[in-house]
UniProtKB/TrEMBL annotation:
PROSITE patterns documented for this protein: CHAPERONINS_CPN10
Coiled coil: none
GO molecular function: ATP binding; metal ion binding; protein folding chaperone; protein-folding chaperone binding; unfolded protein binding
GO cellular component labels: mitochondrial matrix
Keywords: Chaperone
Protein family according to the UniProt entry: Belongs to the GroES chaperonin family.
InterPro entries named among the record's database cross-references: Chaperonin_GroES (IPR020818), Chaperonin_GroES_sf (IPR037124), Chaprnonin_Cpn10_CS (IPR018369), GroES-like_sf (IPR011032)
The name this protein goes by in its record: 10 kDa heat shock protein, mitochondrial
Species, as recorded: Verticillium longisporum (Verticillium dahliae var. longisporum)
SUPFAM superfamilies: GroES-like
């Protein structure tokens, strides 16, 4: 998995694109209780890995 992360980080987005890595939802609480899949909501969170240089002027 480490090599795939390194190869993804070497990608450079073009124009105004952003490369984002999704964050997985926690399947266990801080106290150690496992959560069923039905109670875990889909997260809309991620980590920004790279940002393009911006859109070209028209």
């Amino acid at each position: 998995q480490a090599t795939s992360i390194r190869s993804i980080r070497s990608l450079a987005p073009l124009l105004d694109r952003v490369l984002i890595q999704r964050v997985k939802a926690e399947t266990k609480t801080a106290s150690g209780i496992f959560l069923p899949e039905s109670s875990v909501k889909e997260l809309n969170e991620g980590k920004v890995l790279a940002v393009g240089p911006g859109a070209l002027d028209k």
